[in-house]
Design brief:
Blueprint lengths: L1 H9 L3 H33 L3 E2 L29 E7 L9 E7 L2 E7 L5 H9 L1 E6 L6 E8 L2 E8 L2 H12 L1
Antiparallel strand pairs: 1-2, 2-3, 3-4, 5-6, 6-7
């Protein structure tokens, strides 16, 4: 996988990619889809509101083609694997979620929001804030805690705020 991504970085053009598309499918897409399927099983046990989506288009695996419309870098393909596990409450990459980035020389996992909507951004600009996404049928909520310039995603009981305020009242 890493060798293919290295080769793509050197040969980042449509002609090369078309010739090597079967290798992309075998060395990148298929292993990524296997990982997504396995993570789907794991997510059910500890974060059931986050979904592993196996669709080829619009699923957890981000597309290989870059959006070059507004970029100075006109390379047509990404040289990394991007995988997202979105929360039920969201319909696109802007939803709270987990993100896995695989690239030669740079692999990481992220949790939180990317380009938050206006409400989330409002709390972000206040410096600190809370946003709660509740599911009345489930005793767990997603709480997005934003401190400074970093959004954090937490899983907490629905009654978190009641418990939090009660504990702080006892300490005063």
């Amino acid at each position: 996988t890493f060798c293919f991504l290295d080769e793509l970085a050197v040969n980042n053009n449509r002609a090369w990619f078309e010739i090597n598309k079967p290798r992309y499918e075998e060395l990148v897409r298929e292993p990524a889809m296997d990982f997504i399927a396995e993570m789907g099983l794991a997510l059910e046990s500890f974060a059931p509101h986050f979904k592993a989506d196996l669709r080829k288009v619009g699923g957890s695996l981000m597309r290989v083609a870059r959006d070059t419309r507004f970029s100075r870098n006109k390379s047509p393909y990404k040289t990394n694997i991007g995988i997202q596990f979105r929360h039920d409450a969201g319909k696109n990459v802007h939803a709270p979620g987990y993100y896995v980035h695989v690239e030669p020389g740079e692999c990481f996992i992220g949790v939180g929001l990317w380009h938050p909507d206006a409400d989330a951004l409002f709390y972000h600009r206040m410096g600190i804030g809370w946003i709660v996404v509740e599911d009345a049928a489930d005793p767990v909520s997603v709480i997005i805690f934003i401190a400074g310039q970093i959004p954090f995603l937490c899983i907490a009981p629905v009654n978190f705020f009641q418990l939090y305020h009660a504990e702080n009242a006892q300490q005063e």
